[in-house]
């Protein structure tokens, strides 16, 4: 089954659950609290209607982007907010429906990237941060680059050398982080105007959700040796993300 249909199934379960709970709540309120039913039921049912509409709207937008069609920026933004709020519930329902969590994470990152690409940017290179996980460095390398990428000896055996070439070409800031805590610290201390983040589905999803005030374009790493070990990345995708933030064709 295609990813968009799996997501629609998850959304349908959530909507059904919300409507069922709302009907039960209406029955309880009508049965036990008749004198105050008017205002309470109006507030409850209005909230339910808005929630159901938001979920259906988000599902429609996700379906379109997964089908290769690009909705407008405002639609993407609203859907991204709704998805972020419902993300724990979506993953829980997805688990019950045997939907891999990484599939859901990929939808979220795809939605985020689609929204970012629907906007216009014209930033200087020094305002853009290229943030990479430490597993991009080869395990046999003895030179620590997590605090200073300039320690790289540029042997060309991993992507760090190519990141430095991008820094020289565009003037972007390049950092390598050992985990989410250090990544957040780096972003807070350097205050970039945009971030190109390289990571797995899990780390990209959590990072995008936490860095809400800065546009983040997620680029998946490649894991030929398994997760968190000697990972790689398509450097062309990284460069294209940098060029987009700079407004360069």
TrEMBL record:
<keyword id="KW-0472">Membrane</keyword>
<dbReference type="Pfam" id="PF01976">
    <property type="entry name" value="DUF116"/>
</dbReference>
<feature type="transmembrane region" description="Helical">
    <location>
        <begin position="43"/>
        <end position="66"/>
    </location>
</feature>
<dbReference type="InterPro" id="IPR002829">
    <property type="entry name" value="DUF116"/>
</dbReference>
<keyword id="KW-1133">Transmembrane helix</keyword>
<protein>
    <recommendedName>
        <fullName>DUF116 domain-containing protein</fullName>
    </recommendedName>
</protein>
<feature type="transmembrane region" description="Helical">
    <location>
        <begin position="7"/>
        <end position="31"/>
    </location>
</feature>
<keyword id="KW-0812">Transmembrane</keyword>
<feature type="transmembrane region" description="Helical">
    <location>
        <begin position="78"/>
        <end position="97"/>
    </location>
</feature>
